[in-house]
Amino acid sequence: MSSPARLSQRLPRSFYARVQSDVRRHLGEEGLDAIVCEDWRDVAYLTGFFHTPTERPVLVVVTADRTIGLVPALEYEYAQQQDIAVDELVAYPEYPGVRTPQEVLADALSGASGRWGHAWTLSTGDLGLLRAAMGGVEWVGTHLVDRMRLVKYDEEVVLHREAARLGDVMLAAGRELVEERVADGGPLPSEAELAKHVIGRGTAWMYDTHDNVVVVPLLAGGLVYSGPNSAYPHGLVTEHRLQPGETFILSLGGAVGGRYAESERTFVLGEPSDQQRALFETDARAQHVGTEAIRPGATCADVNAGCLDVIRDAGYAEHIRHRQGHGIGLNFHEPPWLEDGDDTELAAGMVVSSEPGIYVLGHAGYRISDTVLVTPDGRERLTTYPRDLASSIIPA
C-alpha cells in the first residue's frame, strides 16, 4: 500500500516567473520603469527567497526586462541553495561597508534612470541611500506589490489550505491533552504547558506530512489563555492552570510555505453556566453572520458592521475589543482589514480571518475564528474544526 503523497512547501521557479510578469504588467499601468522591495515577505513573494531579516538589507529590483536580487555575501550561497528566482544575484561584502549596499546595487544596474517605485515598507534611511546611489532615478512610493498580495494565486491557496489543516491539528491536540488530564484526575495543564504541547504536535505533523518545510516566524504557534486571562485579546501565555468551570481559548495557527492560517476556538470546562452559554452563543452567531457576509463585492466595512451588530444587539457592545478580522497571507495580519475604516471590496482569491470576540473583564473572553477564502460565488471556511457549543464542552 503506497504512502500518501507529501506536499512540497517550495513553489517552482515558474510560479515566480508568473508573479514577476504580473509585476511588469502593473509597472506599465502605473508608468513605472522598475520597483524595489526590501520587506522579507515581499522578497519571498517575488523570488522564493526566505531569510531572517537583520540590519543587512536584502533588496529585489524588478525592471521591465530583468529581476535583480541584492544580498549580503553571507547569504549568497543560501539564496542559491533556495534557488532564488532572479536573473542576477548581486552580493555586497558586509554592512555598513566601505561602500553601501545600495552603491553595489547601483553598479549592477549601470546608470539606472527613469521613474522607479518603492514599496512603502522601505525604510526612509534605505530610501535615502538609494537616492544617493542612483541620482538619475525618480523615486515614487507604490502599493503595487501590496495590491497583488491581496489576491492569492492558486498555488498559494493550496498552501493556505494546508496551513488551515495545521491549525485544526493543533486544536485537536490541545483538546486531547485537556481531556487526558481530566480523565487522569490530576492537575489540568497550565496555559504554558498547553501551548508547548500544541506547538510540538503541530510542528511534528508538518514535518511528517510535508517536504522542503519553509521555516518562518510562528511556524506553528499562537495564544493559549484561560479563565479571566482570556478576557485580554492578545494576552501572553501564563502559568495559570486550567480550572473546572472556566472557559479557555486556543488561538492557534502557523504557516505552510510561508502562507499563514489561524484556527481559534473557545472551550468550556464542564457544564456551561447561563452566562457562559449566552456569551458563547452570541459570539458564535456573530461569527456565522460575519462569515456568511464574506463574498466578492462586499466591502470590508459592511461585513464588519453586520458581524459586530450581532454582539451589539445582544447587549454586549461594551465588551467588543476589536474588528471582525483581517487579511492573511505571508503574514498573520495584513490587508485587507474587516473593520469600519476599510472600504476595500472583497474579491475572489482573498484570504481573511473571521474572528469576532466578546471580552468580559474578570470573567472570560469568547472568540471563534476561521480562515476564510473568498470564492467567486461566496466564501469557503478553510478551517473546519467544530465551532458549536455542544462540540466545545469538555466534561470536567
Automatic annotation (TrEMBL):
<dbReference type="InterPro" id="IPR000994">
    <property type="entry name" value="Pept_M24"/>
</dbReference>
<dbReference type="Pfam" id="PF00557">
    <property type="entry name" value="Peptidase_M24"/>
</dbReference>
<protein>
    <submittedName>
        <fullName>Proline dipeptidase</fullName>
    </submittedName>
</protein>
<feature type="domain" description="Peptidase M24">
    <location>
        <begin position="160"/>
        <end position="376"/>
    </location>
</feature>
<feature type="domain" description="Creatinase N-terminal">
    <location>
        <begin position="23"/>
        <end position="151"/>
    </location>
</feature>
<dbReference type="InterPro" id="IPR050659">
    <property type="entry name" value="Peptidase_M24B"/>
</dbReference>
<dbReference type="InterPro" id="IPR000587">
    <property type="entry name" value="Creatinase_N"/>
</dbReference>
<dbReference type="InterPro" id="IPR029149">
    <property type="entry name" value="Creatin/AminoP/Spt16_N"/>
</dbReference>
<dbReference type="InterPro" id="IPR036005">
    <property type="entry name" value="Creatinase/aminopeptidase-like"/>
</dbReference>
<dbReference type="Pfam" id="PF01321">
    <property type="entry name" value="Creatinase_N"/>
</dbReference>
